[in-house]
Design a protein that fits this description.
Among the domains are: about 350 residues, Up-down Bundle (ABC transporter transmembrane region fold); about 70 residues, 3-Layer(aba) Sandwich (Rossmann fold). The two termini are about 40 Å apart. Helix 3 runs antiparallel to helix 13. The longest helix has about 60 residues. It is elongated. The strands form three sheets. It has a six-stranded mixed beta sheet, sandwiched between helices. A four-stranded antiparallel beta sheet has the order 2-1-4-5, with helices on one face. The chain has a two-stranded antiparallel sheet with strand order 7-8. The chain is α/β, with parallel strands linked by helices.
Length: about 625
């Protein structure tokens, strides 16, 4: 697994945190007017939804169960004309109520559409802002941070986690606001229509609240445990698949199967425990919701039987119908509490991971008072530099973890210096330190007699051109890979740079030439072609200092010849540091630095080092023997 990474970093530490929620909601602050408008639409929607029971109550009491018409129909002295007149009034009234219900439904649809659209736009804008902030934050992190964090983990933060947060803003926070407004509006309407019946309808509320508190306690535990177990399954699978060759080599498939079966069963059991919690909660809340309806009917029935409907003055038939509908609207949001809470827990876990990443301050950044670097002359000094990738180990006294040990050397402006040594000697680390991808623990690195930490990072790196052993190309055109977003580079300049490093020949032969699409990581190009494009990219951005990291390895002899010619051109009038295993490519270097186990063992030119019969001569003779053998 990646150095410094632990699966516990993936696990949710808290189920709910008000501080996290406040920070999450702060992303809606730039859109506060839209949020207020959305809240207003939610309030309007709640009001419109609760007008329906009132219209039904009026239709039943005034027109369907009209006491005046019933009296006329039972009165033997009433003539047919009077009865028909009352029925005509009832029919018109019912028509108006139906028309009002239709208009109400249309109004609800329009308001709902506007509210959903507005909230979705707000959610997308918040997600857009958060992704930009997170991407920019990751770009500012040093390579040590990338070493410690798997790429998949970072991608998950910027995609899946932020998607979950966006769903919370749209489907969680807004839904909770809508539910609260609905409860308040329904409660107001119930108390306004008949406060006695309202008290009867609300009798089950304390039991529902108690059930919800108990459910929350168990739901939190089950949620956290289920997420921990699935996170550990994911980590185990990642490690197991990465080491599949070892598993198969030692015949450990059966053991691995049983181990995965055990972990999978643990997650299944925890998930079923969570499902059981929901299975108990939903019917319980449903029971108390139905109990409210039963209490309304029971209470009204008892009063009617004892006093008579006409004498009780308690409620009409329409009022009872309305209260049953209002009770359903009141308890509906409470029944949805479990889903809302589950969504909230998901969002809290995702936001905790995202904010933990955002709160990771870059270890390497511009110091207060740092300067914009002028055009470098190219003088480089390493002065007593010690470096280890694992700072914690060396701080605990593990001397073997030092990669560089007391490195001191001086490079004159325009000088061509080569660095050689066995694999692991620390050669490539020199370039990483020069560009401040990492900070040395001891000593100092200076360019033009000024500590590189005194320069602004962007201006420092802009003047250091590094070509890696495995040049990285982005998915896109060859032109885009040379330009790298620099609009100041003209097409003519790009062609000149490609021709300068002998890359124009193969580029022109490609379908589309400079518009040829390079696959991911340049996979549809050879190693030599990728290196030549990297050379063209470097020269196009005109660095003052050039660093080539084993730039001529892993290529055929013809391509190596083209690359060597390109390197000779690149080195003209520039300070350069070349790291190579093929010692034949650096014979013309002004100076060669030989490294061994993180220390400088020898310095001198090619002839001097051969004459000393030291480490350089040994390396040279070994390579010569390999080439001739």
């Amino acid at each position: 697994m990646t150095e410094g990474y632990h699966i516990d970093d993936e696990l949710p530490q808290r189920s709910y945190d008000g501080r996290l929620m406040r920070r999450l909601l702060s992303y809606t602050r730039p859109y506060r007017n839209s949020m207020l408008a959305a809240t207003g639409l939610l309030l309007l929607l709640s009001v419109l939804n609760n007008i329906t029971p009132l219209l039904i109550m009026r239709a039943v009491d005034r027109y369907i169960n009209n006491p005046a018409r019933a009296l006329l129909e039972t009165d033997n002295t009433a003539d047919a004309e009077a009865i028909n007149a009352v029925m005509a009034v009832d029919a018109r009234g019912l028509t108006l109520v139906v028309a009002a219900l239709g208009a109400l439904m249309i109004g609800q649809a329009v308001v709902r559409y506007s509210q959903v659209l507005l909230v979705s736009v707000i959610g997308q804008k918040c997600m857009y802002d958060m992704r930009l902030e997170l991407f920019n934050h990751i770009q500012r992190q040093p390579l040590r941070f990338i070493d410690r964090n798997p790429v998949g983990r970072l991608l998950n933060r910027i995609t899946n986690d932020i998607e979950k947060i966006q769903q919370t803003i749209v489907g969680g926070v807004v839904a909770v606001i809508s539910d609260m407004l609905t409860i308040v509006v329904v409660l107001f309407v119930m108390l306004y229509v008949n406060w006695q019946l309202a008290l009867v309808a609300l009798c089950p509320v304390p039991f529902i609240l108690a059930t919800s508190v108990i459910f929350r306690k168990y739901a939190q535990h089950s949620f956290l445990e289920a997420r921990r177990k699935i996170a550990r399954i994911t980590a185990w699978m990642q490690e197991h698949i990465s080491g599949m060759a070892i598993v198969q080599l030692f015949g450990r498939e059966a053991f691995a199967y049983q181990e995965f079966k055990r972990r999978n069963a643990a997650h299944r059991d925890e998930w079923l425990r969570q499902v059981r919690n929901f299975a108990v909660y939903f019917p319980t809340v449903e029971f108390f919701s139905s109990l409210s309806t039963a209490l309304i009917i029971l209470y009204c029935g008892v009063i009617f039987m004892m006093t008579g409907a006409e004498q009780s003055g308690l409620a009409s038939v329409g009022t009872i119908f309305a209260f049953i509908l209002l009770a359903e609207r009141f308890f509906g949001p409470i029944r949805a509490l479990a889903d809302r809470y589950n969504l909230l827990l998901e969002a809290m876990a995702a936001s905790e991971r995202v904010f933990t990443l955002l709160d990771t301050a870059p270890e390497i950044q511009d110091l207060p008072g740092s300067l914009e670097a002028p055009r470098f002359e190219g003088m480089i000094d390493f002065d007593g530099v010690w470096f280890a990738y694992d700072e914690e180990s060396v701080s605990n006294g593990k001397e073997t973890q030092w990669i560089l040990r007391d490195i001191t050397f001086h490079v004159q402006p325009g000088e061509h210096v080569a660095v050689v040594g066995h694999t692991g000697a620390g050669k490539s680390t020199l370039l990483n330190l020069l560009a401040r991808f990492y900070e040395c623990q001891q000593g100092a690195i200076r360019i033009d007699n000024r500590d590189i930490r005194d320069y602004q990072l962007r201006s420092l790196r802009k003047q250091i051109g590094i070509v890696l052993q495995e040049p990285f190309l982005f998915s896109g055109t060859i032109e885009a890979n040379i330009r790298l977003g620099n609009a100041a580079l003209t097409m003519e300049r790009i062609r000149e740079c490609a021709a300068y490093v002998n890359a124009d020949g193969f580029i022109e032969r490609m379908p589309g030439g400079y518009q040829y699409h390079v696959g991911e990581r340049g996979g549809n190009l050879s190693t030599g072609q990728r290196q030549l494009i990297a050379f063209a990219r470097t020269i196009a951005h005109d660095p003052a200092i050039l660093a080539l990291d084993e730039a001529t390895s892993n290529v055929d002899s013809e391509t190596e010849h083209l690359i060597q010619k390109a390197v000779e051109k690149l080195l003209r009038s520039r300070t350069s540091i070349v790291i190579a295993h093929r010692l034949s490519t650096i014979r013309n270097a002004d100076r060669i630095i030989v490294m061994h186990h993180g220390r400088i063992r020898e310095t001198g030119d090619h002839e001097e080092l051969l004459a000393r019969n030291g480490l350089y001569r040994t390396l040279y003779e070994l390579q010569y023997a390999e080439q001739t053998g």
